[in-house]
Amino acid sequence: MGKKVVIAAMPDLKKASQRRRENTKFVLDEIIIPSKLSMIVHDKKFFIRTYGCQANVLDSQNIEGILLKIGYQKVDDPLNADFVILNTCAIRENAEDKVFGEIGLLKQLKANKPDSLIAICGCMTQQPHIVDVIKKKYPQVDIIFGTHNINHLPQLIFDAITNNTRIIEVYSKEGEVIENIPCHRDDHFKAFVNIMYGCDKFCTYCIVPYTRGKQRSRKIEDILKECKDLVDQGYQEITLIGQNVNAYAKDLNLGYDFATLLEEVAKLNIPRLRFTTSHPWDFTEGMFKVIGQYKNIMPALHLPLQSGSNDVLRRMGRRYTAEDYMALVDRLRELVPDVAITTDIIVGFPNETDEDFEKTLEVVRYVKFDSAFTFIYSPRVGTPGAKMKDSISLEVKHQRFNRLVDTLAVDIKAKAETYINRIVPVLVDGCSKKNDSMLSGYTDTFKLVNFKGNQDHIGKIVNVRILEAHTYSLIGEEVDG
Ligand code: 5AD
Ligand code: SF4
């Protein structure tokens, strides 16, 4: 007989899509640790795997902060752990398939260590049909929680252990801003800082507004305090994170916006300031002014295009045209001549015609992106896109995808080649993944560089002469001064 399942809360996509007019609610210090829990988990080890975007990376840093506070130790091998957490992504079906594969592999952990715990959280578990599948087909999973109740994790662990039950607690709600959750950063010179949660755009292909709730911005004073602490600790780079950063504070009505925040963070003198993701529709004159004015705002912008066809953009609910997008790129290049522009593009949105696809290629050739994430459209249960009829075969979608990647690669390689013989600033991340006699890091324009250099300079910004260019990375050597 399997363990009893306790359902404290099940997700509901309809509820998740509600948007009331009320302003954001703020909650402080909501972490309650049951008094006996630290004794129970003393000396126990956890492993966490994070899938998906930076929102998940930050959630995992909060989960790690909570688990370290309870008394768990972090390990790098799931089979060595007493508690395994998979923080999942729901953006496309292939992201979900990977997680199901990994849950399958964790059967081995349960066989070796019957007392171990497995938890699944993140965007996948915010979807009712996924929770049903995990509940029925994956009895090895003990705890299912969501993106809105990370702060309940201590209680969920305590209940799962002391009652020996499986627990499902996933809330579908617009959500709050919870401040003061512990946060553990492995990296000591590069930090992500959340400035907002959720998304109100409801692009018709996207599951995020359902899995992460309403747009909720943090207050400017809380963000600035966190950034100031990072600067004081010697961090070299801060990336402001949100699904829609340039819509920051629209939900607060407090008289400030993203331009205000960006300027205030830039003034803290962090050597490198980045932000992602921006929506092409939400830029203002004030933002352009700040971007052009501060040298520590890095000349690299991620600007999702999604499609170059105005008809597809309209059906995606993107609120801009291809012409608006190209004018925006022109404007940014006027302000910051060397700015690197990267993007996301989806091919095979329902009923995308050959002409629509050609228009995407036209915009790609016009903009000459520095890099791009490309995706084949994946219908997501509960989104308007999933209800649209689609007459385009998967074969055609794959052909278009390959053509898109080839078209992008021409300009990406040409851009990379312009770096040859230049000396560029690189923030050194560490040893290169493929060759530990080399270092690796990113230029101000967010190009990956592998180079020969001094290991003592890890965590510092150094000058690197570029010797060779590949499509997705540069090769160089550190130079003095
Ligand atoms: N299918 C394919 N790609 C998607 N994205 C978001 N939803 C889908 C989907 N249903 C892409 C978008 C977005 C990026 C993070 O993922 O391009 O910008
Ligand atoms: Fe999804 Fe659109 Fe929101 Fe981005 S802006 S998270 S694509 S709904």
What's the topology here?
Blueprint: E1 5-9, H1 13-16, E2 26-28, H2 37-41, E3 45-50, H3 54-70, E4 73-74, E5 83-88, H4 93-105, H5 107-112, E6 117-122, H6 128-137, E7 143-145, H7 153-163, E8 166-169, E9 177-179, E10 190-194, E11 196-197, H8 208-211, E12 216-217, H9 220-232, E13 237-241, H10 258-267, E14 272-276, H11 285-293, E15 300-302, H12 310-316, H13 322-335, E16 340-347, H14 354-367, E17 371-376, H15 394-417, E18 423-431, E19 439-443, E20 448-452, E21 461-469, E22 474-479
Parallel strand pairs: 1-8, 2-9, 3-4, 3-5, 5-6, 6-7, 7-8, 10-13, 13-14, 15-16, 16-17, 20-22
Antiparallel strand pairs: 11-12, 18-19, 18-21, 19-20, 21-22
Bound molecules: 5'-deoxyadenosine and iron/sulfur cluster.
The site of 5'-deoxyadenosine has 12 residues, from β16.
Summarize the structure.
With 481 residues, the chain is α/β, with parallel strands linked by helices. It has helices spanning 13-16, 37-41, 54-70, 93-105, 107-112, 128-137, 153-163, 208-211, 220-232, 258-267, 285-293, 310-316, 322-335, 354-367, 394-417; strands at 5-9, 26-28, 45-50, 73-74, 83-88, 117-122, 143-145, 166-169, 177-179, 190-194, 196-197, 216-217, 237-241, 272-276, 300-302, 340-347, 371-376, 423-431, 439-443, 448-452, 461-469, 474-479. The model has no long low-confidence stretch (mean pLDDT 95).
User: What is the 3D form?
Assistant: globular
Mean pLDDT: 95
What share of residues are in beta strands?
15-25%
| Structural domain tally | 3
What report would you give on this structure?
This protein is of the alpha/beta class. The chain has three domains: 170 residues, Methylthiotransferase, N-terminal domain (Rossmann fold); 241 residues, tm_1862 like domain (pyruvate-formate lyase- activating enzyme, Alpha-Beta Horseshoe), CATH 3.80.30.20; 57 residues, Nucleic acid-binding proteins (OB fold (Dihydrolipoamide Acetyltransferase, E2P)), CATH 2.40.50.140. The chain is built from 15 helices and 22 strands. It has a seven-stranded parallel beta sheet, sandwiched between helices. A five-stranded mixed β-barrel has the order 18-19-20-22-21. β7, α7 and β8 form a beta-alpha-beta unit. α14 packs parallel to α15. The radius of gyration is 23 Å and the shape is globular. The chain starts with a strand and ends with a strand. The mean pLDDT is 95. Bound molecules: 5'-deoxyadenosine and iron/sulfur cluster. The site of 5'-deoxyadenosine has 12 residues, from β16.
